[in-house]
Amino acid sequence: MPAYDLCGLGWTDELAASLEANHIPGRVAAQHRGAYVLYTEGGEIRARVSGRLAHEAAAPAQLPAVGDWVGFRDGVIHAVLPRRSVFQRTSAGRETLRQVLAANVDLVFIVASLAGELNVRRVERFLTVAWESGAAPVVVLTKLDLCGDPTELVLEVESVALGTEVIPVSAVTGEGFDRLEQQLLPARTVALLGYSGVGKSTIVNRLAGRELLRTREVGEGDEGRHTTSHRELVVLPSGALVIDTPGMRELQLWDGDEGMDASFTDVEELAVDCRFADCSHTREPGCAVLRAVDEGVLPLDRLRSYRKLERELRAMEIRKNVRLRQEETRKWRVRSRAGRERAKWKRSGR
Questions:
Q1: Could you tell me the pTM of the whole model?
Q2: What pLDDT, on the 0 to 100 scale, is given for residue 225?
Q3: Which of 38, 203, 218, 345 is the most exposed place for a label (fewest CB within 10 A)?
Q4: CA atoms of 44 and 296, how far apart (whole Å)
């Protein structure tokens, strides 16, 4: 079983300072039904979380995730070391829980397919979450060989991926992969994120130069079929590390204030000139954002996407915060009472 150079896995002096004296450092490479695979100086080992760590974790997101650095001893993980970045979303289900998809990521490849219908609104959503995570995003457009002239589609993505590199690639011809490989610096961790069937595992296999992750043939309608069932940290020949993630059918935001600022810099810059500091960009007089839409400077769909994500984040904050939820309930009760009073006043004829 080969040993791993911790520095090559991204180990830093800051992490070393946070490690307890009797703990051994390891990086989480995969999770399988409660058991974890760790990369360590002694090689690849399997470990489980200690009962104390499981008990003291206030939420599942505080338990180890792929990409985390942990302190362990005798095959038992006793601590999760501080994360420098975390890619997270709201978990599926009725409960409002944070799900960590990957930790300690330096770069996020947001993967979308040029084959079929390319949804730039989805790209905006991934960009928002990527910026919020603390990692830098790159948009990768796959299946270039199945697209006639990609120029218009690439320009459309570039119009929403402000300040972000957009790289069209083909796993069949290899076109564009030289630009991806330039991003794969030693000890740098890259996470691949995207909806099901866009070709993330194929990208990893191409970068690795061999079949590391299982893929399936493209289905009808030029749509790939999702095969990745778990997150896994893979060391590439370049010395970079990559985390492939299962394709997602939906991506609900958890946080997003900083991500919104970075993803929608065009809207935020326009909003500085609005008459009101708390302008919602819906119907207020003197709204610079609405004026930009009227003048054709800002696409209406772009503003609608901004509003939608803002509403989603506000709803999430309400769900997370009991006080906000109570305030929101009280506000609607006041509005309802005022509506009933107006209706009563009108019926009285006064």
A1: 0.73
A2: 44
A3: 345
A4: 56
